[in-house]
Amino acid sequence: MGMGLVAAAPKERQVESAPAFGPVTPGEWGAGAPSHRSETGEWAIDLRNVDKMYRGKVHALRGIEMRVKKGEVFGLLGPNGAGKSTLVKILMTVIAPTRAEGTMLGQPVGHKPTLARVGYLPEHHKFPEYLTGAQVVEFYAALAGVDRATRKKRTPELLELVGMKDWGNKKVGGYSKGMRQRVGIAQALGTNPDLVVLDEPTDGVDPVGRREIREMLTRIKEEGRTVFLNSHLLSELEMVCDRVAILVQGKVKSQGTIEELTVKRQVYEIEVAALGADGVEGLVAALEGKQAARMLAGRVEAAPLGSAAGVNIAKRVGIRGQLASGEEVEVDHGTVRIATVDAERIQPTLDALRGAAYVIKSVKANRPSLEDLFMEAVTDPETGKALGPGAKKEGGAK
Ligand SMILES: Nc1ncnc2c1ncn2[C@@H]1O[C@H](COP(=O)(O)OP(=O)(O)O)[C@@H](O)[C@H]1O
Ligand SMILES: [Mg+2]
Asked: Which of 348, 335, 357, 363 is nearest to 294 (CA)?
């Protein structure tokens, strides 16, 4: 004990990391406020103020706010040590939170009976090597109380779903990492769960296997289940997730659909074929002459408009200003960048450029990729360097 957070949650019993295998009453883990509960119709997972201080004072989670919609594939993205597995283990009651508010499937976090409706693939799982894949699926379903007849019927279906039909009667000891992950996913579905929680499902799986796992996730979702997965692999999430959250050093930096996260940062890039004798100044004059924009007198040294701010890429010298309609604009060599998603807003600029006899070579709508957003999230805006992995130690030198 002796954690500063005790003061923040006076009514909660503080349980440290010992796995709580006994029955836990909802109150012990802190239920959400009533207003909060009324939203559970839409949310499979609805968390706030989730905090975890490990013994040894690693502050792994620092006030998580996160919502997973029913029926979606949701990806929790973050570098190693960000706290992804810690959050999952709290949801699965493998470890106790220092503090947690909110619900999973409409019940307070920590409510043990709810776990019967949740399938779980832990990270670094190890199935007994002497069991066959089919036995693994059956064994875990039996542990979860699934009756024998249902197990017998469901096991081959699940093995088929994960592409392990031909391997189901072979021993896990002879499986590749990818095959173990597949059996793990089948195992997570053994109880016919409403919510499937997968901690790094594609960890150690080759690209072909990863693609197949993505297809499985889509099928699992089509069966009406909610999928919550952790990954440090960006491309996985971009391709399969309806919504994502980016977790960095125990905090959710941003969450939403990939569209929502990237659209705010869209930039139109207008490229002219050639600059005249007066170079960039000519472009600026063209914009200002037709009152399409008002440019700042000086040049600014900054990463190009629309790129992930603070990311340590070569900074360029551009001339910044504002369009008459208010959008930020930047002129940089033969390119004019305008921070908008609205094509109409760039038309006066195109007119101004064409009016000054510039030949327009291309007009592109550029959005940052999920990787750009991720890099931005893990970059310290002050130093421009990547934030170190893992949680900061409390109390020590920062
Ligand atoms: N049992 C533990 N005791 C102390 N610190 C831990 C423990 N488990 C994880 N941590 C620390 O908590 C932070 C988050 O870890 P984890 O949740 O495993 O991250 P991720 O799954 O995102 O890689 C890391 O700094 C890790 O070292
Ligand atoms: Mg992890």
From this structure: 348
